[in-house]
Structures are given as C-alpha cells and as structure tokens.
Hints:
It contains eleven helices and 16 strands.
Amino acid sequence: MSTGNFPERLARHGPPPIGRFDWYWEPAGEKQMVDSHAQCVRNPTGRGEGRHRRTVGNRHATAGVTQATTRAAYNGRPQTPLPTPMSQKQWIAGINAVAAAIEHDADNVREVLIEAGGKNPRLTEIEGSARRFGIDVRRVNQQALSGVAGSLRHQGVVARYAAAKTWGEDELEGLVKAAEGRALILLLDGVQDPHNFGACLRSAAAAGVTAVIIPKDKSVQVNATVRKTSAGAADSVAVVPVTNLARTMRDLQQLGVWLYGLAGEAEGSLYSVDLRGNVGLVLGGEGDGLRRLTRENCDQLVNIPMPGADGGSGVESLNVSVAAGVTLFEAVRQRVTG
C-alpha cells in the first residue's frame, strides 16, 4: 500500500476514522502528524530519515508510540511535545483538585496547564498561586487539555503531579531480609477509597513498617488524594503494587513471614498471637473484606475484639484504616515490650 503525500491527503480528506488503518509519516523527530484518533509517533533515537508506521485503533504496530492528545495541522515546523495522557496517573484535573494540590503539596506539582482564554476567575487564582510557588504554567488550547484529562472533567486546568516512588515485586525479598527477622508488612486486599488508603499509609509510616503491599488491579493506587491524606507517608513508605496478591503471599511465606488476616468472624484474637518476628498483617477492602484466595493463603485469621458489638451498639466492624492502625500498633506494642 502506498501512502502518497500524507500532508496533502490529510488536508483534503481529514483524519481517517477510528478502527481503520491509519498511515502517517514520522520525519526523524522534526515534524509530527498529530491526530486525536490516531497516534503521535516519536523518534527517541533521532536516527533515520523517517519511516511509515501503522496503527489499528489504539493498538500499536510498533513500539515507541504514545497516544495523541490534540489535533494539529501539519505546518512544516516542529510541534511542541504534548503531555502524556491521564492513564499515566501523573496528572490531576479540575479546579478544586489542582488548587488543593498546589496549596497542600506544591513541591510535587511539576507543571500546570490552563486553558487559553478560560473565563473562570479561579483559573487566574490558580495561575497566580502556582507561579508564587515557582511552578511552571502553560496556557494551552482546550483540545490539549481534553486530550490529557481523557474522560475526566478538567474545568480548564490540569496539573502534572510527580508520581510517588513505588517498589517492584522483585525488591520485596531484599526489604524482608534487610529487616533481619523483624519485618512488619501491611497487605491491603482491595482498598478502594483514597482517603482510607492514605490513612493506612500514615499509620504504617508511624509504625515503621517494612512495606505496604497492594494489588495493581481493583485497588486504589497512590494518587494526589492519597498523598494528601497520608501527610507525606506515601513518599516515605515502601509501597509495592503486585500483580497477584495470593502469589506474593506465598512468596512471603517462603521468606519466613507469618501472615495474619483480619476477619470479624475469626475465633482467634489479635491479642493472642505473637507479632514480634517477620509478620504480615492482611486487611480486606471496605466492602467485601478479604477475598477467598487471600483468606486461604493466610497462616491464621484473627479478629479485633469489639465488646461494643455484643452490647447492642450496632457497630459490627471498624473502618479499614482504623483497623490497620489498631493492628499495626499492637505489633509495635509487642515489639517494644517484648
């Protein structure tokens, strides 16, 4: 198939529809054809005179392709690189979210993009606040903002937020061994609320945990809300997202870590187990608690005694962040006194 003169064809017919083979030209990093439905191709090596590439919808035929964020006409000049999309989890969108990030965590805000010609006076306030903190501010068109924000409502502003450091699964063994027999690990099975997760991280940091393990799927990840709620703990605690929590639990057991899962119906009490060695404390999410495979891979299930639950108080369980604090500091108490 011949592509012909792509710039002229684009000018005559417009961009190809989604789902069709989309052909475009990459002239060795000097010019880019950008379309909101196709893909923006970068040449990181700078070698070669340009080449054809093909995409089908959002599936890439070659590596080195990033999603386009706006439609730009070919004009023979280099295009300003556009930010990566929200899927990278490094962007926050919306007036309140961006304003809160600048106010409470300006050190981690890298750049603010504001809609050129935006009429909302709060956009001007955000721009002034960002500049006072020395944060780069750029005025961009609405299409660029929409491309970055994706399905989120951006209200004329997005901010690039520095991603918190996360640890790889292959680093867990080193973290456990470095604890020299006193590893304290918090495993959270499907916590969804970022405020709960942030509170758990804050308790974990205060208790001096070795690591906090979370699933990569069906669980909140470290984001701006988590970092704000954690009061900085998200940047000081080793957070380890894992692909398969049950498999990771088995790996920890092979390293000599005893895993205790919290379950309201368990017969054993938290206060009856020894938490002084290599220990992993496993807590479930807000709704369903521990999943079946997670339960099965615990060495023992325990409960937090709640006398009020038997006294007709109507309280049958604790919030996951409260339960995490209680459990972690029981381990701390035993280690300090024992």
